[in-house]
Amino acid sequence: SAARIPNFSGNDEINDLADQFNQMLDQVQRYIEQQKQFVGDVSHELRTPVAVIEGHLNLLNRWGKDDPEVLDESLKAASQEAERMNSLIEEMLQLTRAEQVESKNVQEITDVREVIMGVVDSIQMLHQDFSILSDIEMNADVSVRMTRNHLEQILIILLDNAVKYSTKRKEVHLSADTTPQEIHIVVQDFGMGISPESQQRIFDRFYRVDKARSRERGGNGLGLSIAYRLVKAYGGQLTVDSVEGSGSMFKVTLPTISESIPESTDHEED
Ligand code: ADP
């Protein structure tokens, strides 16, 4: 590992500088380790779809020319896998972007109630066999300083998961309320739930409780890590409360724009 500056006994100023330098060095090294880990994880995740596509190309090459059934199935399977790869890459980009959000540079003001209603509507449209019930105890003018797109992304990830990991009871509840300082949004499902050990890891990138099951539902294990990083970037919190076999509750807390600040009476959109 890189050379650290040793402490020179006797000179406090130099020792302080050395300490600062060493701390920076540690930070850089931690960052490099994280990047290495990420590249390793990504390569590992891309291996499966590439192997699947290769397998189907092999089948096509051997039997596809004579057997229309093989031709049809392998073409379909390979292009499905390419699509999954596409969504994996798209989600990895979203994760990288989420890590780069600097909330102090964001000026956009977003109406929370309106975004919630829009997202609930679109998830309901996509899953007509579900009841997406919402209970929004919030005035129309409650706002957060974050991009509309990011708030939508967070809610879509949580609602999408709630639907994806539901079992018999096809019902998802969203409730929202506010205090003067913060908004709370809770997404609740009555599905498979998450064990206490897994609850500690679900916000890690690429973590899936059941790889096969998540994969079969199109999951890459990145949704919650994207949501978590976004919420954190805006000074909020994302927590989970779940009981295996009965369901899960995800809670988002975000700081509101204080209504007592006079400058913020004009809600401009960027
Ligand atoms: P994925 O794309 O696999 O859904 P996420 O990062 O969104 O990835 O979630 C990580 C894992 O956490 C999922 O694979 C699943 O095992 C678990 N999980 C997420 N949301 C729920 C939920 N509402 N109920 C049960 N398990 C969940």
From TrEMBL:
GO terms for molecular function: phosphorelay sensor kinase activity. Its EC number is 2.7.13.3. It comes from the Bacteria. GO terms for cellular component: plasma membrane. Residues 1-33 form the HAMP domain. It catalyses: ATP + protein L-histidine = ADP + protein N-phospho-L-histidine. Keywords: Kinase, Membrane, Phosphoprotein, Transferase, Transmembrane, Transmembrane helix, Two-component regulatory system. The keyword Kinase applies. Coiled coil: none annotated. It is found in: Membrane. Residues 41-258 form the Histidine kinase domain. Its main location: membrane. This is Signal transduction histidine-protein kinase ArlS. It comes from Lapidilactobacillus dextrinicus DSM 20335. The chain holds residues 239 to 508 of 508 of the full protein.
